[in-house]
Amino acid sequence: MRTIFPISLGLALFACAASAQETTPSAAPAAVVQPVAGESKTDAAMKKLIALQEGVNHLLEDIKDKASADAAAEALVKSKQEMRAIVDGMPKELTEEENIHVEQVYTPRVDELAAEYAKLVAELKTKNFYDSEALTKALNQ
């Protein structure tokens, strides 16, 4: 069995822990992601994580001023907490076959989202996060 750590946490960490300052474990209970018929718990969790990260990226794309930065901060924190909870509830190990499946099916999208997220945060940083303390804090949690 191999660990799922690189894929699942890779996805969650680029959004959930954009800063290495995060040392406090999630206060949210582990999320229970219900798979649809014929779907593994890992597939269901990865799909939910990807959907949440897409939402985070959309939040960041929509920031155009201090008011929108402040408004996005609360939703960003909630998304990050939900992502952490999902990761906490994921299987810690996969078989070799499961690991290959996860890498083939999800890694391309994860990489794309990670690059997009990094670009969006870099753009916001050049604008000093629109002087939003709430957004700065949310991105560093």
What value does the Rg take, in angstroms? 15 Å
Number of helices: 5
User: Any low-confidence stretches, pLDDT <50, length ≥5?
Assistant: 16-30
Helicity, in percent? 55-70%
User: Strand-residue fraction?
Assistant: under 5%
Count the beta strands: 2
Q: Give the CA-CA distance, first to last residue.
A: 32 Å
Element-by-element helix/strand order: EHHHEHH
Biggest sheet: strand arrangement: 1-2
Structural class: mainly alpha
- Overall spatial form: elongated
Summed over residues and divided by their number, the pLDDT gives a mean of 81
User: How many domains, in number, for the residues?
Assistant: 1
Main pleated-sheet profile = 2 strands, antiparallel
Name some characteristics of this structure.
two-stranded antiparallel sheet, 67% helix, mainly alpha, 3% strand
Notes on the protein architecture:
With 141 residues, the protein is an all-alpha fold. It has one domain. The protein is built from five helices and two strands, in the order E-H-H-H-E-H-H. Strands 1-2 form a two-stranded antiparallel ribbon.
Short description:
The chain has 141 residues and is mainly alpha-helical. The protein contains five helices and two strands; from the N terminus they run E-H-H-H-E-H-H. It has one domain.
Topology:
Blueprint: E1 2-3, H1 5-16, H2 41-61, H3 66-89, E2 93-94, H4 96-126, H5 133-139
Antiparallel strand pairs: 1-2
Helix pairs in contact: 1-2, 1-3, 1-4, 2-3, 2-4, 3-5
